[in-house]
Structure formats: structure tokens, C-alpha cells
Amino acid sequence: MSKKVDVGKKILRANETYALRNSQLLRRGNKKCFNLISSPGSGKTTLLVRTISDLSGAMDFGVIEGDLQTDIDAERIRATKAPAIQINTEGACHLSAAQVHGALEQLPLDDLDLVFIENVGNLVCPSAFELGEDGKIVVLSVAEGDDKPIKYPGIFAKSKVLLVNKIDLLAGDSRVDFDLDRVKTDARKLNKEIAIFPVSAKTGQGMDDWYDWLKTQVRSPQ
Amino acid sequence: MSKKVDVGKKILRANETYALRNSQLLRRGNKKCFNLISSPGSGKTTLLVRTISDLSGAMDFGVIEGDLQTDIDAERIRATKAPAIQINTEGACHLSAAQVHGALEQLPLDDLDLVFIENVGNLVCPSAFELGEDGKIVVLSVAEGDDKPIKYPGIFAKSKVLLVNKIDLLAGDSRVDFDLDRVKTDARKLNKEIAIFPVSAKTGQGMDDWYDWLKTQVRSPQ
């Protein structure tokens, strides 16, 4: 078992080395970078597509897409004209800082204000791997239920922002049971500083507050 | 890197040893065992609660609950009077066969027909760890989108059953875009034998076909 732990530590140390390189590369160019983490199907790509389109002219984005297989998410981003680099992990459950480093080198960083990393859909493993980002953003779809902060506390404790997505499913004669106040209370118990934005990337509801937050980040000094 | 691979292989070999023990223990008692795998929030626990309640009298179930933290899922199962053992992985992203072995020893196996293992909510990692089960069952909520079989092919390729849950969200003036035929086609491309049941654990829609499948399994010889 000690061998297992040693090797685990070595992998994390190697990851930290690349994370530091990524952070230095981004800071040197005064670029912001956020790492989006969620369960599969929370709507991360739809969120990014709408954000990039709505803020076109105000900010220039690049995207690094992590998926086990396929490049359909990168294709969806490229349809907005933003540059996107697809990483296929071939079964691995998270992005590594080394993979992100390779992707950063392929992006036209000089032309960008902000890089989004869309991690592999997984609420557990990606939270353990620093990528050199300015912060993690956890996305939770209301269809996943309001018990997720207490059941998956790690990622909620580590994130700068919680985007509660698909709130359009709560309107009118809703068939989704979801207590937004419970989620806010439980997330803030884990993380006093977390910014929480209830949004619908589909209808646009609530997105302006998220856009204001992004603008503040891009304006803020390193 | 070779050290990493060697240790990885050792972990998998140790897991296989326990998986074999679990399988032998279950077969000796003529008990069936299915391993439920899905993203967080697909509705696995709700599915189990309804299944256990509706089949009460026809079949006796035990449940092993895997979660990072909390025992709220085991408590929900126990409310049906079925015995449930909670495993907290304390951050680990999947259940191991050794953990399941410990839980099987705590269940009153002699009184049971079938054991459900509800794995940690994660569509990636749990598919790599055999637990000694008779089969894997993948649960996909329609709110996660219809691109999941092509984006997370491993678990769809390995499962005996696909339960497409929350189909009540597709009725009437649905706000959820989900092409059930696409999911069926893509899942069957990966796995010709997979049984697919569209269900709503909330309303009960489609559950009878799933129950018929379970009854066939419990009746079938080892």
C-alpha cells in the first residue's frame, strides 16, 4: 500500500509542476482561466456557447474541451467562432495539467482574454487535479437534485462559483423537485465565499449576473 | 511510468480477487446481484425505492449504497424495510470489490433474492471495477441529454440493462430535448445485447417491463 501512496503522490507532484507552468504562462499574458466541473449532462457546453455568443465583442474566449471520446463539444464551441482545442482522455476520468499545457500551446493566447477549460463530466475526480486555473466553477443542473452539495462536498468546497443550471425546468407546472435555498445553504456551509448564480443557459434567465462576474474577473489585476 | 502501470495492475488484480470471492458467495446462495452505475442525480435511489416497494412480496432485496459522504441514501432504502449497508468512500470515485465484500457479510443474505449495489455517482470510474455482480445496469436521466452513449461509451458497452429514467420530463409541453431513438441506436451500436427500459421512477411509467426483467433474472438458473 505504501508503494501505491508513493506513486499517487508522484503523479500529483508531476501534475503540480505542469499546473504551475500553466499558471505562469497565463499570468504572463494577463489571461484569466476557469475550470468548469460537473456531472455529465449538466449543460456545461450549452453554457459556454451562450456565454461566448452573448459576450462577443466584450471579451475574447478560448476553450479547452475534455471528453473521454468524440469532438462534438469542441465543434459546438467552434460554431461560435471561438477557438477550441479538444482533448480526448480515452477513458481517463479527469484532465491533467500536462494535457492542458499542450492545449494552451495550441490556442492563440495573445488574442484571448479568458480561457475556459471544460473538464470531463465527473463530479468527483477532476476536483483533485489543479490545472493552473484562476478558479474552479461547479455546474449543477436542477434535474440532479438538491442533495448534491452534501453528497459531493469536495468540489463545492473548492469552487469560486456555483452555476445552478436549467432553472427553466423549475418554472410553472414543474415536474422537478429542487429546493434552491437548500443548495445555497449547504454550498455556503462548505464554502462561505462561493458565488452562486441560478441560470438557464437555454432561456438566458439569470445569465447577466454571471456575465457581470466574468467581466469583473477579466478587469481585476493579477 | 512503468511503476505507475505496475501498481495500477496490482490494484486491479487485488480487486479481481475480491470480485471472485463475492461472486462465489452470491452463487453459493443462489442470489442475484446487480451493480447500478450512473452520473450523480440520475435517480438511482428513487428507482430502487420504487422497485423494492412495488415488488414487495414477490422478491426480497438487499442494498449496498456507495457514496462519498452521508448515509441519506441508505436511510431512504431502509424506509422500505429492506436492509441497506452504507459505504462511505471518503472521496474515492468508485466502490471496490473489497468494500462490497465487507458489506455482503453484513447483509442477511439467506433472506434475500437479489442484492443491488448502488455505486458512487460517476459515469466513468466505476465501470472499470468488477464487484462480482451478475451484471451492470446503467441509469441515464433524460435531463442529461441524448449524447451520453457516444460520449461515455465504456459503461454502455459493459451493461446488461440501460434504464432511461425521468421520462415524465418528456411528456406534454416538455422543456427537455432528448431523442430516445438516438440513445437506443447509439447504445445498441456499442452493445447489441443491452436491454433498454424507458421509465419514470417518479410516476411509475414503464416500470413493469423492468420488473418483468428482474423476475426473469431471479428465476433463471445460475
Task: Set down the secondary structure blueprint.
The structure is a homodimer of 222-residue chains.
Chain A: H1 2-28, E1 32-38, H2 44-54, E2 61-67, H3 72-78, E3 84-88, H4 97-106, E4 114-118, E5 135-141, H5 148-151, H6 153-158, E6 161-165, H7 180-190, E7 195-198, H8 207-219
Parallel strand pairs in A: 1-4, 1-5, 2-3, 2-4, 5-6, 6-7
Helix pairs in contact in A: 1-4
CATH architecture of chain A: 3-Layer(aba) Sandwich
Number of strands of chain A: 7
Q: What structural class do the secondary elements of chain A suggest?
A: alpha/beta
Shape of chain A: globular
**Gyration radius of chain A, to the nearest Å?**
17 Å
Helix content of chain A: 40-55%
Domain module tally of chain A: 1
- Biggest interface, residues from each chain: A-B, 38 and 39 residues
CATH topology of chain A: Rossmann fold
CATH-defined superfamily of chain A:
P-loop containing nucleotide triphosphate hydrolases
What is the CATH C level class of chain A, in words?
Answer: Alpha Beta
Question: Strand count, sense and closure of the main sheet of chain A?
Answer: 7 strands, parallel
Low-confidence stretches of chain A: none
N-to-C span of chain A = 41 Å
The strands making up the biggest β-sheet of chain A line up spatially as 3-2-4-1-5-6-7
